[in-house]
Specification:
868 residues; alpha+beta; Topoisomerase II, domain 5; Gyrase A, domain 2; Topoisomerase, domain 3; four-stranded antiparallel β-sheet; 18 helices
């Protein structure tokens, strides 16, 4: 028992000497903080200066040490990974290789840092080949990060086992963190920096050098926003402004799509670009699931036709509305995603949340240090070389004495000692043009050789004693003196340092800059087809039975007067003429414009041109009831085009911003004018445009400025001209006033706006037409019976339409059988008011003209608008 007691006492003493009482919670907190800082600083977050995490930097440095320059052959990735793991990054190859692969993927990096050869995966999430199969070398951008690293531009630190040195940061000749962005999840913090365009970023850096006081908002003039390697569309600038100013923001990113017409009247949505970090295969799979779940039943088929470029074809069913489908795709699939920006990086060994201006300034400060250290290094090297050349010049100036001294020496050590003891006068230095050595002249006014100079003289080869070599030495020394002076000027002037930084950045932009890939829309919101559909000139046609379509204007070739025309629409062969379909309305427009549809009952509906289905020239089109909520008694009486761009190029065009009017005319001769602005906010179900009396209907509408003269033309060839100032402006619900009195059996078939530079074209149903100057139509008071405008005979038939036309205009004439002819107005000679006219189109016996329309002339890029 005594022995046990003694042992226990000894154990207690020994334990007390080795055990320290601690608070467990405090110890855990301390250990966890150490671990957290290690993860933050040494693993997860990029350095603000070169934009690299330690693992990325070590891979690139290992490649640099292996000599894998952009102009050298590729090397097996297994060798690179082994070199990195053995020398710099003691982690598994399953951690190193994916990092290497990521820096070589063009869909992941805006400017790839590694040039890979072999299978490095795909945007669909396919894994890369094993590292024993793939090869790599540095890309030009990767090499730029390490440019001038051998010139003491950055600090080197010991590697993990202190056997080698590795750079703590790269010189970074371009702002990699901003250009390529970065992601990382640390302990208690994370970073998600979007990539940006290299050229735009350099422009912003140059602007900051010139104007350091620029605000974060001012940088929007230079950097539009993120520029993702996969392209796409960013909606709105609110999120961009937010992270520019605060370092945090949320971006709504959509894929880029366009529309194509397929055979059989079908259409397709084609995805050309997908949002950043979206897996294309997963996107296609998600769309397929939505089709199977009947969430998007309008999709008939989906095909991934991608190669190195994305092309996913989504074929729609025949009656599908593309706008509805694309909105559902944005709502239910990763075709629209949110990119949360959180710009956190390591700055002076501390994690910081930085806005864009602060990121740019951090990079500029780093480049300033690099340039100063590089210039100082170059200066020291130049001084060292100049010192040696001075020794050569002194030795060559007294060559015989030097040779004799060396020959008389028994060994190198003795020769070195004798050369160090030599003294030279300052006059000799002045004679030889030696300036650097002036700093080493003693108080006695003499100069002696340095040890470095003596060693270089002893190493001189015999051929360097020739006259030619002596001249080279003198020439090199003179050039060095100039460089030394330049280096000193740079180091002595902040202005020259920043000018050099600008010069080098602009050189990088000139050589490696490229256009941005990501589009940025001004406002976020629902999808705008203006950004999905090209703004093209098209022809809109609407048939008597309500079939509408749009066709590219290029499909209609210009012909001479009197031709047969081309088939403009396949119409139904019913047998009875009154039941046969034919084109009643035609208008020339751009796909971004608005269309106002005025019905015979006096209601108006609005539709964008791009929402009208695009069909081939000879196809029938789709029934308008699929687009407009028409009442059973309604038919389309007129279509008007509102130009989307407020800066209209033609005086005969109008936009919502112009103070123009819409002038209405009914079959019974009633007229009215209402401001265009009253029709800007039209409900989907339409609104009243004019009140129509019983047994009357609306036949025509046109734009006016409120001060013009109007001509009304009747079926029997009567016309009346009056000033529209006689018609006061009225609201939408007004019925109007009498414009022309009609004789029994007559009715108004058209109305035209008078323009003295133009003429009035009147066309009969038998293809006869005439062009008459407005001067032949005297102004009258509205409400009269008018005067004759065309002799209606068996040859001409009844008047079917009338239009104001200009000399440079082209016209479309449509016939009952669906033929279309395009003629130039200048090919029509002018005739008198009370004549029959000339033949405009050759018709079959059972065919007749149904309507005419003017083609708006286009202008070439850079020309002035073609005005009447």
């Amino acid at each position: 028992m005594a022995q046990n007691s003694e042992n226990n006492e000894q154990l207690s003493i020994r334990d007390n000497s080795s055990v320290r009482m601690v608070d467990v919670s405090e110890e855990m907190k301390s250990c966890f903080l150490d671990y957290a800082m290690s993860v933050i600083i040494s693993r997860a977050l990029p350095d603000v200066r070169d934009g690299l995490k330690p693992s990325q930097r070590r891979i690139l440095f290992a490649m640099h040490e292996l000599g894998l320059a952009p102009n050298r052959k590729h090397l097996k990735c297994a060798k690179i990974v082994g070199e990195t793991m053995g020398n710099f990054h003691p982690h598994g190859d399953q951690a190193i290789y994916p990092t290497l692969v990521h820096m070589a993927q063009p869909w992941a990096m805006r400017e790839v840092l590694i040039d890979g050869q072999g299978n490095f995966g795909s945007i669909e999430g396919d894994p890369p080949a094993a590292m024993r199969y793939t090869e790599a070398r540095l890309s030009p951008a990767g090499a730029l990060l390490m440019a001038d690293m051998e010139k003491d531009t950055v600090d080197f630190v010991p590697n993990y086992d202190e056997t080698q040195m590795e750079p703590a940061v790269f010189p970074a000749a371009f702002p990699n963190l901003i250009v390529n962005g970065g992601t990382g999840i640390a302990v208690g913090m994370a970073t998600n920096i979007p990539p940006h365009n290299l050229s735009e970023t350099i422009d912003a850096l140059v602007a900051l050098i010139d104007q350091p006081g620029l605000s974060a908002e001012d940088l929007l003039k230079y950097i539009q926003g993120p520029d993702f390697p996969t392209g796409g569309v960013i909606l709105g600038k609110e999120g961009i402004v937010s992270y520019f100013t605060t370092g945090r923001g949320s971006l709504k990113v959509r894929g880029e799509v366009h529309f194509e017409e397929l055979r059989g009247g079908k259409s397709a949505i084609v995805i050309d670009e997908i949002p950043y970090n979206v897996n294309r295969a997963s996107l296609v799979e998600k769309i397929g699931e939505l089709v199977n779940q009947k969430i998007i039943p309008e999709i008939a088929d989906i095909r991934d036709e991608s190669d190195e470029n994305t092309r996913v074809v989504i074929e729609l069913k025949r009656d599908a509305i593309p706008k509805v489908v694309i909105n559902n795709l944005y709502k239910h699939t990763p075709l629209q995603t949110t990119f949360a920006v959180n710009m956190v990086a390591i700055d002076r060994l501390r994690p910081k949340s930085l806005n864009l201006k602060e990121l740019l300034f951090c990079y500029l400060d780093h480049r300033h240090d690099v340039i100063v250290r590089r210039t100082r290094f170059d200066l020291n090297k130049a001084l060292e070389r100049a010192e040696i050349l001075e020794g050569f010049l002194i030795a060559l100036s007294q060559l015989e004495d030097f040779i004799r001294l060396i020959r008389e020496s028994t060994n190198r050590e003795e020769a070195r000692k004798k050369l160090l003891e030599l003294k030279f006068s300052t006059r000799l230095l002045e004679t030889l043009g030696i300036f650097i050595a002036q700093d080493r002249i003693t108080e006695e006014g003499v100069y002696s050789l340095s040890l470095r100079q003596v060693e270089a003289i002893l190493d001189l080869r015999l051929y360097q004693l020739t006259g030619l070599e002596r001249g080279k030495i003198a020439s090199e020394y003179a050039e060095l003196l100039e460089k030394i002076e330049q280096f000193k000027e740079i180091l002595g002037s902040e202005e020259k340092i920043w000018a050099l930084i600008k010069q080098e950045l602009l050189a990088v932009k000139e050589k490696y800059g490229n256009p941005r890939k990501t589009k940025i829309l001004q406002e976020a919101g629902e999808v705008s087809f203006e950004d999905l559909v090209a703004n093209q000139r098209v022809v809109i046609t609407l048939t008597h039975n309500g079939f509408i379509k749009r066709t590219n204007l290029d499909n209609y070739r210009s012909q001479r007067r009197g031709g047969r025309g081309v088939v403009g629409m396949a119409t139904q062969e019913v047998g009875k003429e009154e039941e046969q379909d034919f084109v009643e309305n035609l208008i020339n427009a751009s796909t971004h414009d608005y269309l106002l549809f005025f019905t015979t009952d006096g209601r108006v509906y609005i539709q964008r041109v791009y929402e009208i289905p695009e069909k081939e020239r000879a196809s029938k089109g789709k029934n308008i009831v699929n687009f407009l909520e028409l009442k059973p008694t309604e038919e389309i009486a007129s279509m008007l085009r509102i130009v989307a761009n407020s800066e209209v190029s033609d005086s005969r065009e109008t936009s919502w911003d112009k103070n123009d009017y819409i002038f209405f005319c009914t079959k019974k001769g009633r007229v009215k004018k209402t401001p265009v602005a009253d029709f800007q906010n039209i409900r989907k179900g339409g609104i009243t445009a004019i009140s129509i009396e019983e047994n009357d209907k609306l036949i025509d509408c046109m734009f006016t400025d409120g001060q013009k003269d109007i001509v009304l033309i009747t079926k029997e060839g009567q016309s009346i001209r009056f000033s529209e100032t006689q018609v006061r402006s009225m609201g939408r619900n007004a019925a109007g006033v009498i414009g022309i009195n009609l004789r029994e059996g007559d009715e108004v078939v058209g109305a035209a706006v008078v323009d003295e530079r133009a003429t009035l074209l009147v066309v009969g149903e038998k293809g006869i037409g005439k062009r008459t100057s407005f001067e032949e139509y005297r102004r009258q008071k509205r409400g009269g019976y008018g005067i004759k405008t065309m002799k209606t005979t068996e040859k001409t038939g009844k008047v079917v339409s009338a239009r104001t036309v200009f000399e440079e205009d082209e016209l479309m004439l449509l016939t009952l059988k669906g033929n279309v002819i395009r003629i130039k107005v200048k090919d029509l000679r002018k005739t008198g008011r009370n004549t029959q006219g000339v033949r405009l189109v050759q018709l079959d016996s059972d065919d007749k003209v149904t309507s005419i329309a003017r083609v708006v002339p286009e202008k070439e890029e850079g020309e002035e608008p073609l005005l009447p």
